[in-house]
From TrEMBL:
Source organism (scientific name): Echinimonas agarilytica
Sequence intervals crossing the membrane: 28-49
Record localization: Cell membrane; Bacterial flagellum basal body
Family classification: Belongs to the FliO/MopB family.
Gene Ontology cellular component annotations, sorted alphabetically: bacterial-type flagellum basal body; plasma membrane
GO biological processes: bacterial-type flagellum organization
Full protein name: Flagellar protein
Keywords: Bacterial flagellum, Cell membrane, Cell projection, Cilium, Flagellum, Membrane, Transmembrane, Transmembrane helix
Length: 129
């Protein structure tokens, strides 16, 4: 009787094992399809949010960075247009300071005053030694 029971159990295990593997594969495929659907919905909602939300909510408030220049490893000069005025800002990791303010008419004059002949770094270093 015990032997018959063991034989029946082994036959049942042989029959159930392939169907369990197929069921696991089916569950994995179903899970991957569900994941792709959720990701497609999230990407679609993000696109619609950026496309149809007003600019005042998304952060554009009439500020434009016209020019930016790194002057050190963590220091920058920024020329920002605010409405009809231009503001020159110095930005460091600790603070942001207003350096100058220009109107649209004053800006070309200020830029031409700043332009100068480039000094070769080698010549500058050699003159100091």
């Amino acid at each position: 009787m015990m032997i018959a029971w063991l034989m029946a159990a082994s036959e049942t295990a042989k029959v159930l094992q392939p169907s369990t593997a197929v069921d696991t594969t089916g569950q994995l495929v179903s899970m991957m399809i569900s994941l792709m659907v959720v990701l497609a919905i999230a990407i679609g909602l993000a696109f619609l949010w950026r496309r149809f939300m007003p600019q005042s909510i998304t952060g554009h408030h009439g500020l434009d960075i016209v020019a930016s220049r790194n002057i050190g490893s963590r220091e920058r000069l920024l020329l920002v247009k605010v409405g009809q005025r231009y503001v020159l800002l110095g930005a460091t990791p600790q603070s942001i300071n207003q350096l100058a303010e220009f109107t649209a008419d004053e800006l070309p004059e200020a830029l031409s005053a700043v332009k100068q002949q480039p000094v070769q770094t080698w010549q500058l270093w050699r003159s100091k030694t």
